[in-house]
Specification:
single chain, 5 helices, mainly alpha
């Protein structure tokens, strides 16, 4: 049943991302980075979030990510993947810890690429857990 569902849904998802690519033609990580104050936000976190979100997309297309992109509606990401795999990969690549994440002001508010960057920017340096 999952294979059948994927066969039906994947063309819709691919069309969605093709429209995003068409609307964002010429955009790159540079425009994404300009959405942040690089004096206060670690540029390595900006790059890592951009790259990891692109890799997590349910399409093979390279879709330009925007800071305002909603994980579920725009990027079609699965909530479980965000909580587990994506967060661990970003923490590991940026050298940020996931300890005490509940005290982060962005905890429970990370539904956009912008808030994911800002969440990790406020996490302490240390070993990723």
């Amino acid at each position: 049943m999952a294979i059948t569902w994927g066969t039906i849904e994947q063309p819709k998802i691919d069309r969605h991302f093709q429209r995003l690519c068409d609307n964002r033609k010429g955009l790159s990580i540079c425009e994404f980075a300009r959405e942040f104050d690089r004096k206060t936000v670690d540029t390595w976190i900006i790059r890592t979030v951009y790259e990891q979100l692109q890799a997590a997309l349910p399409t093979k297309q390279l879709v330009p990510i925007q800071a305002s992109d909603d994980f579920f509606n725009t990027l079609k990401l699965d909530g479980d993947d965000l909580d587990l795999d994506l967060s661990k990969e970003i923490a590991q690549r940026t050298g940020r810890t996931l300890e005490d994440y509940q005290s982060n002001p962005y905890y429970g508010k990370v539904t956009t690429a912008r808030n994911l960057v800002l969440f990790f920017n406020l996490q302490a340096h240390g070993e990723a857990t």
